[in-house]
Amino acid sequence: MDWLERCVEDVPAFLHTHWRQGPALLRPADPPTEVLKPADLDGLIDGGLLRVPYAALYTAVGPVPEEQYCPPRLVAGRRLDGCLDPGRVRSLLDDDHATLQLRYVNQWHAPVRALTEAIGARLGRLAEAFVFRSHPGHHSAVHRDDGDVLVIQLSGTKRWQVHGGPADAHWQPVPDAEPGPVLLDAVVEPGQVLYVPNGFAHTARATGSAPSVHLTVVLREARVAHLRAELGARLAAGLALPARPLDDEQLTATAAGLLGHFRAQLAGTTAQSLVDAARLSAHSSRPTA
């Protein structure tokens, strides 16, 4: 099964026309909406096994404090914190119109994992997945995400406005008060897929009368920190040197051995191979907004 094709329909055309160039609303014939059905989400909410930080709740004023929906539990005589209480979560969703965010769903939900792993392998990126359940009317701040984004609308509708990319390489994945003109303004319906290139500012608001549920697949892009980490790992691989050489001659010989090891390790390394490896390990310290 070609999961990327099910998201973008014509993969060569998508890569040629949209990838890293501009936002696009896609209408694939066979979207992968079955990876997380409404009943599946209800089961996750009501099952009682969701835990922080894999799940979080937000309202218009900001994050909901965990103590409001994660009372402590006793399990086999041990106190267990961070577990979402289904009743309290339902109250926040229905009465306070909170938004539920499920994070890194690819780590703990097998169908979503199959989707992200296949798309990530096809595009040579680390792929992570997030689910958002938003009540109509909730409007997110204009922000930039640290990676290319495929938004798969599962149920309900959501209006997206996408602005341009960052002006320089010093941008951060945070709210942006001056994102520039809107490039795409569209209501995304169930089965449709929205593509937002890396760093393009965007905002979204659930519309209609029912909650909006969408699955976001984030294809992380490498940063300088990932390049440094990958380079450091390559240089350190197989390195065994004495910690405290006894005299000047041994210290100089150790320095020569260190340089020789680095040269050998870098002999087959190209800039592209370093980028490719860094992209596969480009974990973010921040969840997608």
Automatic annotation (TrEMBL):
- Span of the signal peptide: none
Instruction: Identify the cofactor(s).
Output: Fe(2+)
What InterPro entries does the record tag this protein with?
A: JmjC_dom, NO66-like
Name of a matching Pfam family: JmjC_2
Q: Where is each JmjC domain found?
A: 89-236
Which Gene3D superfamilies does the UniProt entry name for this protein?
A: Cupin
Please indicate if the UniProt record lists Hydrolase as a keyword: no
- Record keywords, A-Z: Iron, Metal-binding
The record's PANTHER family line, in alphabetical order, gives: MINA53 MYC INDUCED NUCLEAR ANTIGEN (PTHR13096), RIBOSOMAL OXYGENASE 1 (PTHR13096:SF8)
Provide the protein name.
Answer: JmjC domain-containing protein
